[in-house]
Design brief:
about 180 residues, mainly alpha, 8 helices, elongated
Length: about 180
C-alpha cells in the first residue's frame, strides 16, 4: 500500500506538471505577464485540497491562512519570471520552470506540515500561528526535499526529518 506521503508527492508532481504546462501554453500563445494567474490559482487550490484530503483533513482551521503564507513564501521566483513573459519561447519556458518549482515547493511544504501533524509534533494551532521565520525555514527545507524527490532519493525517514526540522523552526521562534 502506498503511504500518505507517497500519495501526496504523486499529487504534487501531477499538479506541478499540469501547472507548468498551463503556464507554458498560455504564455507561449499570449505573452502577457500574469496571464496564467487565474488558472494557476485554481490548480494550486486543488493541489492543497488534495493533499489535505490525503491526510484526512477536509476542513482544518487555519489551513487557508497557512497555505496562503506558504504560497507567498514560495512564489518569489515565479514573480521574477513575469518580466520575461514578453520574450517569445524563453519567457514561456522560464515561467513554466518557475511554476513547476513553485507548485512542487508548495506541495512539499504542506506535506511536511501534515507529516508533523500526523506525528503529533505540532498541533493545528501551530499552523495558524506559524511565524514568518518558521515558514521561511519550511520553504528552505521543502526546496531541499524537492531536489531529493526529483533525484529519486526521498525516503520515509527524510519526511520525518523534514517534519522535525519544521518543528525545530517553530520552537526556535517560540523561544525568541
Amino acid at each position: 500500500m502506498t503511504s500518505k506521503s507517497e500519495q501526496a508527492v504523486s499529487q504534487t508532481v501531477g499538479h506541478a506538471i499540469a501547472a507548468a504546462g498551463t503556464s507554458f501554453g498560455l504564455k507561449f500563445f499570449f505573452p502577457i505577464p500574469a496571464i496564467d494567474a487565474a488558472p494557476l490559482t485554481l490548480i494550486t487550490q486543488r493541489l492543497c485540497n488534495k493533499i489535505a484530503a490525503i491526510y484526512g483533513y477536509k476542513s482544518l482551521r487555519g489551513l487557508s491562512t497557512f497555505t496562503g503564507i506558504v504560497i507567498g513564501a514560495a512564489s518569489g521566483a515565479k514573480l521574477a519570471t513575469e518580466v520575461t513573459s514578453l520574450i517569445p519561447v524563453a519567457g514561456a519556458t522560464a515561467g513554466a520552470i518557475a511554476t513547476f518549482t513553485l507548485h512542487m515547493v508548495t506541495g512539499v511544504m504542506l506535506i511536511i506540515a501534515f507529516e508533523a501533524l500526523k506525528q503529533g509534533s505540532i498541533k493545528e494551532e501551530d499552523l495558524i500561528n506559524s511565524p514568518v521565520a518558521a515558514i521561511s525555514e519550511l520553504a528552505e527545507i521543502a526546496l531541499h526535499k524537492v531536489a531529493d524527490i526529483l533525484r529519486g532519493t526521498s525516503g520515509w525517514n527524510q519526511w520525518n526529518d523534514a517534519a522535525n526540522k519544521f518543528l525545530d523552526a517553530l520552537e526556535e521562534e517560540d523561544l525568541d
